[in-house]
């Protein structure tokens, strides 16, 4: 799945692939660091549950929360800032220059990686889920890279949550225990093809005429 996703992505946006990889690697690293803070607090709490006072527990929890929050803010600013620079800064700067007669740098010609909105916000969502202890940080960076680059969703979504999507992709023993899933998957794939070819493509003939001659 990862190899297919990389080939698919590179065929559309080879120059954007290093940016996708760097963003995924940064999120993977920061998620590991956030998980380490959570684990350290849980370990301390387990060892000192009886001896620690309420104030000590509160102080330790506050320190852990602040540390995790700083890590989240740092990487989210970088990821969202990169998204804003690549996709939204140029029209903003051009508009300001035209309106105010300024000479702001317009970043024209900057690389806009394929699906940058989808994978950036998905990765931020994964990081927030780790921060909130909804999912454990993934130790394997290749799985995080697959989550961000999955060819099924990289161009048109939908936005996926790590805890919902990745067990379906990577949990092979669970899949082997439920062979009925393969039958359901085949039915859904065939149903999708029928809807696309027999309904959507036929209706598109009519809608193309309308949109082409809307006046």
Report on this structure.
This protein is 76% helix and 0% strand. With 215 residues, the chain is mostly helical. It folds into 2 domains: 2-168, no CATH class; 171-215. It starts with a helix and ends with a helix.
Query: What level of helicity do the residues show?
Result: over 70%
- Proportion in β-strands: under 5%
How many structural units, i.e. domains?
Answer: 2
The backbone outline, from C-alpha atoms, is flat
Number of strands: 0
Alpha-carbon Rg, integer: 23 Å
Average pLDDT confidence is 89
Summary of the model, kept short:
The chain is mainly α and 215 residues long.
Topology:
Elements: H1 2-13, H2 17-47, H3 54-100, H4 116-131, H5 141-149, H6 162-170, H7 172-177, H8 180-212
Helix pairs in contact: 1-5, 2-3, 2-4, 2-5, 3-4, 4-5
